[in-house]
Amino acid sequence: MIRFAAALFWLLAMCSLAVAQERPSLPTLLEGLAARDDLTPLKTVIVARSGAVVAERGYRGNRPSDSTNIKSASKSIVSALVGIAIDKGLLQGPEQKIAPILESDLPVSPDPRLQDITIGHLLSMQAGLGRMSGPNYGRWVSSRNWVRSALAQPFDDEPGGEMLYSTASTHLLSAILTRVSGKPTLALAREWLGPIKGFRIDGWDRDPQGIYLGGNQMAMSARSLLAFGEVYRNGGKTAEGRQVVPAEWIAQSWQPRTNSRFSGDIYGYGWFQRQIAGETVHFAWGYGGQMLYIVSALELTVVMTSQESAPSARTGYRDALHLLLGNIIDTVKAAPRLGE
């Protein structure tokens, strides 16, 4: 029996070794992506394990150090700023009502339900107000006052109801941060997230009143986005051990609160969640395929940036990126010592 068990253990070990040897290394995997027609928009990929970059690649002349528009992936950064503001006492918490803060921008005859919208509703896209994303986005950003325009939209649901994905919700958070701190949101990001080595916002659009656009049009490099993701993977701490984002806020942000009616993905406070290759993955997603994935169980952080001129959801490209992450996860599981 002992000999049989030993033989079985050896056989399983040899099978695992054979599978690992058949699977390409991460650098080889990333190298081969350049030839894939389904990934033509791909600009960069970076893979980090336990805080160290183990593979990175740029495609078609793009580099991981180049600044790029991360689009709605910036919503996760705005969420972090809200969590820090709560920790600093500038905001009371997710249950705080927004109407008293934005009182000067409320409609003349406001819908009574505006008094029920909370910080948490904006974070989870459950404010109930009409969506200012997709086909309505252009009309919204053409208005003279984006905050007032967002608050004047008719209700499509009750506050706390279905997820209605809207960049206007995150922009209201940017306006709230500006009001309660007396500082521009970009200044807050540079001050509060500045201790993160490698993190830098290169550019960020503003509305006609000078408020930085919460949740869109933010420029940073793939490496900068990775640095931000690493802090979340590390429980809110920098590599040096400094607590930048409260650990409790990360837990709250990743708590399932609603679901996207388009993808079915779980949504928390500025973060999506789904199962990929058997692992729970939290991710930020921006138009065109700007992705920040965190796989906590594997201590894995992955960034993918893409051309931002075309949609990624209805074309199937986002699904191709999810599958690519699955390939990366499988490779990590098959070869734990990725540096070899």
List keywords for this structure.
11 helices, 3-stranded antiparallel sheet, 16% strand, single chain, 8-stranded antiparallel sheet, alpha+beta, 340 residues
Structural overview:
By secondary structure, the chain is of the alpha+beta class. The strands form two sheets. An eight-stranded antiparallel β-sheet has the order 2-1-11-10-9-8-7-6. It has helices at about 1-20, 25-30, 75-85, 120-125, 135-140, 145-150, 165-180, 185-190, 220-235, 245-255, 315-335; strands at about 40-50, 50-60, 65-70, 205, 220, 260, 265, 270-275, 280-285, 290-295, 300-305. It is globular, with a radius of gyration of 21 Å. Mean pLDDT is about 95; it is low at about 5-20.
Give the topology, please.
Elements lengths: L1 H21 L3 H7 L9 E8 L2 E7 L8 E3 L4 H14 L31 H5 L13 H5 L4 H6 L15 H15 L3 H8 L10 E2 L13 E4 H12 L13 H7 L4 E2 L6 E2 L4 E5 L2 E8 L3 E6 L4 E7 L10 H18 L6
Antiparallel strand pairs: 1-2, 1-11, 3-5, 4-5, 6-7, 7-8, 8-9, 9-10, 10-11
Helix pairs in contact: 3-7, 3-8
Helix and strand content put the structural class at alpha+beta
**Total number of beta strands:** 11
Described by strand count, sense and barrel closure, the largest sheet is: 8 strands, antiparallel
Helix content: 25-40%
Distance between the termini: 36 Å
Strand order of the largest sheet: 2-1-11-10-9-8-7-6
Q: Shape, please?
A: globular
What is the helix tally?
11
Task: Look at the structure and give the mean pLDDT.
Answer: 93
Q: Per DSSP, what share of the residues sits in E-state strands of 2 or more residues?
A: 15-25%
